[in-house]
Amino acid sequence: MEIRTTCENCKKELPNDSSEAMICTFDCTFCKDCVDGVLANVCPNCGGGFEKRPSRPKDALIRNPVRKDIVYKPVVENRFLEKYKNIDPRKR
Questions:
Q1: How many Cα atoms are found within 13 Å in the side-chain-facing hemisphere of 45?
Q2: Is 36 within a domain?
């Protein structure tokens, strides 16, 4: 699993121990505010839902560090939103 350190939509910092980091099954990473307010729990990249991202144990960060580059793709259009916003992520 990648640990991306910013929200892909608003660039909010989401360090390894953030309680606001949300991920989809492909490690797309957004902050809780964007997931709830902008995305309606629908990933704009794959159409999946989001879950709280776990933190990586500090000892494991030495062998498997967080991702250094920033993934920034502000959501202009969520092509999956209308199709999936009222469907449970596990049933999409």
A1: 16
A2: yes
* Alpha-carbon dihedral 1, 35, 8, 11, rounded to 10 degrees: -120
Please check whether residue 9 lies inside any domain of the structure: no
State pLDDT tens for residues 62-88: 999 999 999 999 999 999 999 999 999
Q: Is residue 6 in a domain?
A: no
Residues β-bridged to residue 52: 22
Domains of the chain: total: 1
Write out pLDDT tens, residues 14-52. 999 999 999 999 999 999 999 999 999 999 999 999 999
Q: How remote is the C-alpha of 31 from its chain's centroid?
A: 7
Residues 6 or more apart whose CB falls under 8 angstroms from that of 71 comprise 4, 6, 8, 29
